[in-house]
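Minutes, structural biology subgroup

Action item carried over from last meeting: produce the structure token record for p53 apoptosis effector related to PMP-22 (Gopherus evgoodei). EB confirmed the sequence was re-checked against the source entry. Recorded below for completeness.
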Amino acid sequence: MATCTLACWRCRWLLPLLLGLAIILGIIALSGRGWLESESAPYEHQASLWETCTRWENDLNWQCQSLMDYSWGRAAAATYLVGFVILVICFALAVIAFSVDILRFNFVRGIGGLLFVVAVFQIICLVIYPVKFTEDIPMRGSNMFSWAYGFGWASTIIVIGCAFFFCCLPNWEDEYSSPERS
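Output recorded by EB:
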């Protein structure tokens, strides 16, 4: 019977690929202008992690204000950026760890621990942003947290899943690669 454990060369790269996907989703969340948008026409409001823009009636131009003027805006951006930088470091460590067999068991649990730290930083940002935004920024009409905010959550969910797998992987590989199973 053919089995595929994460020790095989095909499956070993799934976790680093998932981390790469989380990085791509994080880049979209960091650069996207769709953290908050007006739900229906007339579209009066849109916001990113960095700024909020409003368009008043009969005005074609958006008037933008930096969220970096608010302490919570700086905190949200800083926590997401710190988490993102640690995520990129974890991706590099995962590629190194899965490339060199000797390093795999030394790095894997540490990468899992760092990924939990990434998740905490990202969750802090993703909770601070909507709570403080709705408290401090005057909005009209019906607004919704939109696609870029959703990409931030998607990145966070992938990071949490990868963190569990990185932490449990050494135990799982030990169990399935022991000589008694053969």
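Discussion: Strands lie at 36-38, 45-47, 51-54, 63-66, 143-145.
Next step: EB to file the record with the rest of the batch.
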